[in-house]
Amino acid sequence: MAEILGAEVDEEGYLLNETDWTREIANAMSEEDGIELSPEHWEVINFLQDYYKEYEFAPAVRVLTKAIAKKLGNDKGNSRYLYSLFPYGPAKQGCRFAGLPKPTGCV
């Protein structure tokens, strides 16, 4: 089993236990992907964690885009902006950094 900072992850890098998540783990995951997390990244990561707490599932990209637009505005709730932050997929990569399961419907 693979690990990141002592936390077990699956073959795609998602945490096996959500309670293992820390900001340090998110930063380590992002470094592996060549991304330095900015306040804009954290805004989306925190949004994803709040969404998961409320709805108990990780949103796919279309749902995520609409939900962010509703809460944070159209300038942030669009694919171009979200993919500029998470080039491997705002839902997939964002959820991985947020310590959440792989979003429903993502391959």
UniProtKB/TrEMBL annotation:
UniProt entry tagged with the keyword Signal: no
Keywords: Cytoplasm, Transferase
Cellular component annotations (GO), alphabetically ordered: cytoplasm
Residues the record marks as active site: C106 (cysteine persulfide intermediate)
InterPro entries reported for this sequence: DsrC-like_C (IPR042072), DsrC-like_dom_sf (IPR025526), DsrC-like_N (IPR043163), DsrC/TusE (IPR007453)
EC assignment: 2.8.1.-
GO biological process, one term: tRNA wobble position uridine thiolation
Principal place of residence: cytoplasm
Gene Ontology MF term list: sulfur carrier activity; transferase activity
Location in the cell: Cytoplasm
SUPFAM superfamilies for the chain: DsrC, the gamma subunit of dissimilatory sulfite reductase
Family the entry assigns: Belongs to the dsrC/tusE family.
Function: Part of a sulfur-relay system.
Protein name: Sulfurtransferase
